[in-house]
Specification:
Blueprint lengths: L1 E5 L5 E14 L3 E10 L15 E10 L9 E15 L4 E14 L3 E14 L2 E14 L5 E16 L2 E16 L5 E14 L5 E15 L4 E10 L4 E13 L2 E15 L6 E18 L4
Antiparallel strand pairs: 1-2, 2-3, 3-4, 4-5, 5-6, 6-7, 7-8, 8-9, 9-10, 10-11, 11-12, 12-13, 13-14, 14-15, 15-16
Length: about 290
Amino acid sequence: SYSKTTDLDGTKRSGGGVYFAYNYNDGKWDVIVTDSHFARNFRAQAGFIRRTGYDRLYTVVGRSFRPKEKSWWVRVRPFVVSLGFWNEDKKLDESFFDPGVDITLSRGISIYSFISTRKDNFRDVGLRSGSYNVRWGFDSFKRFATSGSIEIGTDANFDPARIEVGKLFSHRLAATVKPSTKLNSEFSWTKSSLKSRTDSFQLFDQDIFRNRTIYQFNRFNSVRSIVEYDTALRRMGLSFLYGFTPSPGRGLYIGYGDQLYNGVDPIDRVRRPGTFRQSRTVFAKGSYSLMF
């Protein structure tokens, strides 16, 4: 892709972008390679990239093993994922190398684990970190399912006032309850904590509690609600949606959304007693497909 633009002050800019992708999968080996380069003066009028002036190389290599006969395990897949990201000055901006294993067992049990080694560059400061990650899913019961992830190690603190690598602990725990074929409700708790390795100062601490519930009255009518609270931002989000879909391509949606802050003014981020509303939205959307 190539662009040639003129700014409002008359400055002319031109630049190009190149994207290459390769995918291979024969049931045993799977390989993904993507390489992209976008010049600093490239302008994407459609907005399909978030930044310019970089080179990015991303690779995934995996090998799947399966039992010859029916067994308690379904698949074991060792893999390696890597990334290299260079800025317009050809300096390494971000990189990681993640070897791991993806295991699928019978009865809907899955385990995904990897070790991550990362290198970041923030304001010309090199930051090296690493962590151990494990994710799991359990979907053996008709009315209940659970999933989660835990990450322990170190991570970069991208705060200009205190640039350092801190001790990381994060997790996501989720449980889905399906008391009937019409009702589905998921409860999740996501936590992310980063402490200084020198004085145990709390660099970052966030808990997000979320519930997403769907009730399907029949094949045409359904309601969905999302309630979320973020302890770091002291923000509660509410979202309610009604959907009517009589046939594919036709639908009517009516929704309501609210953003509330507990003890924090969302305009200037100053702590004040009370509840503050940042926004409230009511909308209706309809769709109709014409077939020719």
